[in-house]
Amino acid sequence: MLNAAQLAEFEKNGFLKGDVVLSDAEVERLREELDLIMEGKSVKKPVLNHNMRAEEADSLYKGMKMSVSEKVVQIVNIWMASDTYLQHAGHPVICEEIAQLCKTDTVRVWHDQIQYKPPVTGGPTPWHQDHPLWPVIQPADLVSAWVALDDAVIENGCMWMVPGSHKWGDHQKYMASTPDFMPYHRNPELLPEGAEVKAVPFEIKKGQVGYHHSLTWHGSPNNRSDLKRRAIAVHYMPGHTVYAPTSGHPMVPYVTVNEGDILSGEHFPVVYSIAKAAM
Ligand SMILES: O=C(O)CCC(=O)C(=O)O
């Protein structure tokens, strides 16, 4: 459970470090499952299992064949392939804290994602805000729980965050990065007065949870170290999130509700409710 100072810090910055919530043995179990699923050896499959860098390069070069040496393995909805990850998505401490941060009495899973940056060749995850990449749900007040499966430090490509940026609205299309991975705004006069685009590293220990708001500017640079950088992020919806499609998303085929309805259903499981928590 988060205290008042932690809630105030999240409100101010749009991100917050939580406790170490997984034991070494629990992390090891998640790593083993990850290896199995990444290699395509699981019986049930996730929604996506691909190298994000290959696809970015492909769209950049409009289908021209090119060799991609950088790798960021992204697995979306690993919980659909693994009961261990489903159990992780329902982690009682994380879900209770998400409910506090979202000020809600019901928490559902929007989707999860692994991002694995292998040693040396691990690529960057460009600067972005989450909600503009989710043009099928409203409002933009989701909170994600990012749990490190290896110590995530500057050397192996931990996430970086821009404090306060969750209060600036949607600036996704103006976001850019310097060659040394520092973010800047292409049209800074559109930022609210006093807004300062200044990134800080968000180092997270193995088994620790870090929270971020769905409008917080964030990204992670290359992993050029000889350390792996594995992590599981679960993107959680407060009870009032509705289905409001304006364009596509990999989760759309799993939606069974109508436009304007609460995004519920078997692929968006409830992992916390006040009634459940009281039981
Ligand atoms: O794992 C990363 O480096 C990026 C993850 C991310 O963008 C997210 O969890 O929203």
TrEMBL record:
InterPro entries: Phytyl_CoA_dOase-like. Gene3D superfamilies: q2cbj1_9rhob like domain. It comes from the Bacteria. One of its GO terms (molecular function) is iron ion binding. SUPFAM superfamilies: Clavaminate synthase-like. Keywords: Dioxygenase, Oxidoreductase. This is Phytanoyl-CoA dioxygenase. It comes from Paenibacillus herberti. The lineage of its organism: Bacteria, Bacillati, Bacillota, Bacilli, Bacillales.
